[in-house]
User: What shape does this take?
Amino acid sequence: MIRLVACAEASRLDLATSSGAALPPLLLMEDASLRLWQAAQGIAKARGAGSTRLLLAVCGSGNNGGDALALLRHARFSGLLRVAAILTKAPGGLSAVHAASLEALGVELLSWTEDRPACERLLAEAAVIVDGVSGTGLSGPLRGSGASLVEAANAAARSGGAAIVSIDLPSGLSDSFEPGWPVAAASWTLSVEPREACLYYPAARDSCGEIVPIEGVFPADAAVAPAARLLEAEDLLSLAPLPPDSAYKGSRGRVAVFAGSEGASGAAVLASRSCLAAGAGIAALYASPELYPIVAPMLDAVMVKKSGEGAADLSRYDALLVGPGWGRGEGRKAELARLLATGLPAVLDADAIYLYRALVDSGFRPSAPLVLTPHPGEFAALTGTGPEAALASPPARLAETARALRATIVLKSHVTWLASPEGELAVWDGRESGLGTAGSGDVLAGLAAGLVARFPALAFSAARAAVIAHGLAGRRARASLGWFESGALIGEAAKVLGLGVPDFP
Assistant: This one.
């Protein structure tokens, strides 16, 4: 897992490194800019920037602007002659040193407020635009010359084919980011480690492009307060270790599934089968009487029972899965309350999430580990905020909601955020459009329930493992099948989890 930090923590680390390592800030900036140029030069040269076309930096007055100016000097020293910069205001502090060096080298430096026509000419000629307009010190949306320069750079990228390379984070992005704020549309973000959590806000993720880690600027063992942890494929085995060779069906976890309704039988089938793909030894689907004759012939390895039968036998299960395709009709709320009263760990998806919100409002509190897997609309129903707010800046809202509901929450999106009941946050940078297919969420819910059954005391770990396995399964299914139906995820997830490794021949 990779540490992600808040912007304020990144700024604090900058100051702490200068003082703790007795490094003058100018020297630290020089080191950072050199590492940034080493990462950027391949992009610049591949696009002809600095030779046949222009390598342009757009700079604010902060340290990111200084980094961009210093990067231009490294480019100039590397033999790239066509370089220039646009400034939002006269540089001061550390930036003034690098600006003076560029002026001595004959590099064109223009003011965005005073030389607008000439600046627009440079933007039109640029092959690569190095974005250093704002950095981690930004509070609120970009305004004034910074906002207009970012918007002009985005327009140049759209119309002229320039690639924007942002330093540390796209200008305009911050911890408090909201949809509609001006933000640079980067093709690459050169992010100094530890990278900022806001790079992975779902509403802003596309503006970050490919995130390239820049290491060695700060000490690898620097003490930082992580805002979240970025999940990696390699984390899967530690979160969901393989069962011992002596395991049998009763020891691998048993799941009771309450899912499906008339017209939504597929959700019940996908979710039930996915419990077994997660490694659970037994899965039993409790189907409504009208659904029973439809789903029973479709499930050979899953036991199918009529709902209302054998309810007293739930004590032999290790976890519950409730909600996929279940509906919110008469009696469902009372049935959910009865199921949760068993004290079994549970995964709630889809309709059960809406019903659970009503139970909480009535004073219900869970007595066992609970995992909720909402999409943005369902999360909005939990919190009373709009879906856009959930995707804009998840950490505070997600952590607060997880604590209030005493549940692990999996906020599903192209970038999935998870929170534990204690407020610990994790992120999966999925970005796999193949998973945007009907039934994909039912598979995820089943994987989570199967893993919770295997590790009932470790619901947050189980949820993280389910998200990783689901994401890897999507990538593998897309690679082998192209566009796929969600049922294809089940076999791929079973391979990933059954082998305990993220990739295999």
